[in-house]
Write a structure and sequence with these properties.
The protein is an alpha+beta fold and 503 residues long. The protein has helices at 44-60, 72-86, 185-188, 201-204, 255-261, 270-277, 292-305, 415-420, 457-460, 471-478, 486-496; strands at residues 89-93, 101-103, 110-112, 119-127, 135-141, 146-155, 158-167, 175-178, 181-183, 210-218, 228-235, 250-254, 308-313, 321-323, 328-330, 336-344, 352-360, 364-373, 376-385, 393-396, 399-401, 426-433, 443-450, 466-469. Helix content is 19%, strand content 30%. Strands 6, 7, 8, 9, 10, 11 and 12 form a seven-stranded mixed sheet that branches. Strands 18, 19, 20, 21, 22, 23 and 24 form a seven-stranded mixed sheet that branches.
Length: 503
């Protein structure tokens, strides 16, 4: 047993990582209290501790009695009202009815006439560590780095986050709780010819607000090729969106209220979850089974062992897939399809459009097994290889099973343990949507499963690609960027918001 030597989240860059606070600016309207307020006598480490304490207060605030501006029930009612007000309609269409999208004659790639947004191409994946030919599949390529941003502000000493009721065509129920800003570069540069992105200036104009966290994070490496988004939280003292009548699609929520909403199926969208995961963990670290240096070494060794490589190929040349009027799909109709939809929506930058989406053929599963060592909760992390990740391997949940499954029938380790868990061992279970702007009804069942008291050598001494780490260590890795998968970040947001308690 070793004592965890973690520096606070975001204060140093790990292998292949980056510092979490580029271009930090003060704000004349912010006081210099509570550590992270920018006091000149405080170190960055002290500032991060102060920020973690403020986040802990926000996580503890779930209603007016504890510092929130409204009740969570009122937020649920507001979301239902905005769902009715937006009156969104979505329908499947044949590819021939796509407006602005077409299959290129020479490559078969599905592209937008502007050359922006994203393209659907082919990907060939080689795994020198496995026998057999490479597998091939469609993949999205989106070189643009989008902005996923939450605006924060204190009300009566409690940190709140400005959330948006936003429609995405692929979400179940369509309208979910989104970050303040959720936009690709093409969106906020108004390539679509629509209106501007509300509150974008707080994230793009230097000095307009003070960063609390700012990192580049990956997205689904099995459906995107090298996709990254900027995950950022900034704080302001300005009067912003405080009149519900003037900003009907925006509300200020505490972290604790978002945690209560995360106990509900398909309410908090993926972009909100990944941004919240980048904040410092509100709890203490505690002694860990492995030092931070050992955790970094474990991930580095997994990356060096990986023999997974991906290369783009023409969509028309992807083996084992066919295209008809309605879909691009595998010949056995498994894993996922590429389909087209037409959308009509009020409250978006444009009122109607058509686009392609990836539609999984079934739900996914993302689960952390956890147990206590000397009273400290540990998560069984997996060094997960996904061909489309920028660095191929990132830290994922114990079990992460997506419907495409790489096409080679791999059965994840510990999947049977998760499947068999019931009763008190399942500390958390909810269904959450993946990125609704790119995927149609892509959902994952997210779980925390206790294995305390289970006498199993495979759990106590896991295989080399699994390691017991503390939630604080997972948070520290997340703060470096491109170290933790989007599925693990969802579960980290669930944990840090108080939606589940492991002790």
């Amino acid at each position: 047993m070793r004592v965890d030597s973690s520096r606070p989240h975001g204060t140093e860059a790990g292998p292949g990582g980056q510092h979490g606070h580029p271009g930090q600016h003060g704000h004349p309207g912010l006081s210099e209290e509570d550590g992270q307020r920018g006091h000149p006598g405080l170190s960055e480490e002290d500032g991060q501790r102060g920020l973690a304490a403020r986040i802990a207060r926000s996580a503890a605030a779930t209603g007016p009695a504890t510092g929130a501006r409204t009740t969570t029930g009122e937020i649920v009612a507001w979301l239902a009202e905005r769902r009715r007000a937006h009156g969104t309609r979505i329908r499947r269409i044949p590819f021939a009815e796509l407006d602005g999208w077409s299959f290129q004659e020479d490559t078969g790639n599905l592209v937008h006439r502007s050359g922006r947004f994203f393209t659907v191409e082919g990907m060939r994946v080689h795994d020198a560590g496995r026998p057999g030919p490479p597998w091939e599949q469609p993949v999205m390529r989106q070189p643009e780095v989008g902005v996923l941003g939450l605006l924060a502000k204190e009300f009566d000493g409690v940190l709140h986050f400005l959330a948006q009721a936003k429609m995405e065509p692929g979400n179940r129920g369509m309208l979910q709780l989104s970050p303040t800003v959720q936009a690709t570069r093409s969106n906020y540069q108004r390539v679509h010819g629509g209106s501007g992105v509300r509150f974008l200036e707080f994230f793009t104009e230097p000095g307009r607000a003070r960063p609390l966290t700012d990192t580049l994070q990956s997205e689904h490496g099995e459906w995107f090729l090298h996709k990254s988004n900027r995950n950022v939280v900034v704080e302001t003292a300005d009067e912003v969106a405080e009149d519900p009548a003037a900003e009907p699609d925006f509300r200020w929520l505490t972290l604790g209220q978002i945690g209560e909403l995360l106990r509900l199926d398909n309410v908090v969208n993926m972009d909100t979850r990944t941004v919240l995961a980048c904040l410092p963990a509100p709890g203490g670290q505690g002694p860990s089974q492995h030092t931070d240096a050992e955790v970094s070494s474990w991930l580095g060794a997994a990356r060096s062992r990986s023999r997974l490589t991906a290369e783009p190929v023409r969509l028309a040349r992807v083996r084992g897939w066919l295209r008809d009027e309605q879909a691009v799909r595998r010949t056995d109709d498994r894993h996922f399809r590429v389909v087209a939809v037409a959308v009509e929506a009020d409250g978006r930058e444009v009122g109607s459009w058509t686009q392609p989406l990836f539609e999984p053929c079934g739900p996914g599963v993302s689960a952390f097994l956890f147990r206590h060592f000397d009273g400290v909760p540990h998560l069984l992390a997996h060094a997960r290889a996904e061909a489309g990740l920028p660095q191929t391997v990132e830290v994922g949940p114990t079990v992460c099973r997506t419907p495409d499954g790489h096409g080679h029938g791999h059965h994840p380790a510990y999947a049977d343990v998760v499947r068999a868990a019931d009763g008190a061992r399942v500390r958390y279970a909810a269904v959450h949507s993946e990125e609704g702007g790119r995927f149609l009804y892509a959902e994952s069942r997210c779980l925390f499963v206790s294995v305390d008291g289970v006498d199993d050598s495979d759990l106590l001494t896991p295989p080399p690609d699994h390691l017991w780490i503390t939630p604080g260590q997972l948070g520290a890795l997340t703060g470096r960027g491109h170290q933790v998968t989007v599925q693990a970040r969802t579960l980290l947001a669930v944990l840090n918001s108080g939606a589940v308690r492991l002790s």
